[in-house]
Amino acid sequence: MVTKPAKAAPDTARRSEKSRRAIYEAALALVGEVGYPRTTIEGIAARAGVGKQTIYRWWGSKADVLLEAFLDLGEQSAREAGASDQEPYAIPDTGDLAADIKAVLRATVDQLKDPRFEAPARALAAEGVVDEEAGRRFTSALMEPNIQLYVDRLRSAQEAGQVRPGIDPRIALEFFISPLAQRWLQYTGPISYDYTDTLVEYALYGLAPR
Amino acid sequence: MVTKPAKAAPDTARRSEKSRRAIYEAALALVGEVGYPRTTIEGIAARAGVGKQTIYRWWGSKADVLLEAFLDLGEQSAREAGASDQEPYAIPDTGDLAADIKAVLRATVDQLKDPRFEAPARALAAEGVVDEEAGRRFTSALMEPNIQLYVDRLRSAQEAGQVRPGIDPRIALEFFISPLAQRWLQYTGPISYDYTDTLVEYALYGLAPR
């Protein structure tokens, strides 16, 4: 009797990694082209050139595949942008809050304009708008970790005396992310570094005279 | 020979008004139930109990019908909220900028939670996310007039010395509308009067200590 190996042999691992990547790419391409409701596990499998059992072995649903594919895409972008493997999404803490938030928002602008990201991200966002359960799931998996980084950075700024003590970081961070998100989702205005830099200045120093 | 009357007779006008209202209601209900792509002029006509030629006589496309139906719904809500017929959407100018913006945002919170509004508004917003041309059209017809009211109110506050002279009102207004829009579109947090009141305080006085 042959016992099951604790780890897959190198060849199997390499083959699995190749299939996994093909599945991610197929899932993102397909949802961008036909939308979330018409994307199926069968369609992803056919496009990736794998059997659908391969997909069901690793994931429970098309939402699971897509969420992982997006997380992987985000990690790839972060690596290309020179982030460390350990903390691809950290917000820098140089002590200069305005500069640190501006840098992160500029990276977000780049990501929103990245064609690999745009079509699948829009398909997922659109589904979330009309399907509350899906929307909450996408937000929780894809946005909450990022939101938490803003909360942490704003708390550290509060401890450093750069943000007023009474401010709730969970609300304050929306001045940085929500205007950009709305311009992207609803075409309420153009997206640029100048724009996000301005948001940071206005948010920190307020609209009323000092 | 009978000349065409310049105005429809009272009976015809009443019948037309009844059909128009039935068409608006059918269009909003249908798009909320089946989504924008599967809403058709034929479906709206059947549900409203009118011939589809009646719809084509007044509107060029389903987008046209829906945009008018939304504008009508907004006017109805404004009338129910006690706004004057002349300026249903004006932002008050009592001289207290914070109070005026808070009042308008509280009305927006009520609208976002109005079940007549929610499903059709989500269907339209979702289509706009994936179809840029439709999205720009919806934003231009349904959001820009409202955005312009904020621009006007902020300019008047600037003239009164309540907003810093260098601030661009077109960007500043996003601190009031975008966080609320993102919470509604992406479920990033709960929506309440307390929340929108807080947005106004933070936006006017900034996050950094004074």
UniProtKB/TrEMBL annotation, chains A, B:
HTH tetR-type domain segment(s): 17-77
Family matches, as PROSITE patterns: HTH_TETR_2
Molecular function via GO: DNA-binding transcription factor activity; transcription cis-regulatory region binding
Keyword DNA-binding: yes
DNA-binding region: 40-59
Residues making up the signal peptide according to the UniProt record: none
Keywords, ordered alphabetically: DNA-binding, Transcription, Transcription regulation
Highest taxon of source: Bacteria
SUPFAM superfamilies for the chain: Homeodomain-like (SSF46689), Tetracyclin repressor-like, C-terminal domain (SSF48498)
PANTHER family: HTH-TYPE TRANSCRIPTIONAL REGULATOR RUTR, TETR-FAMILY TRANSCRIPTIONAL REGULATOR
Name of the featured protein: TetR family transcriptional regulator
Organism of derivation: Streptomyces phaeofaciens
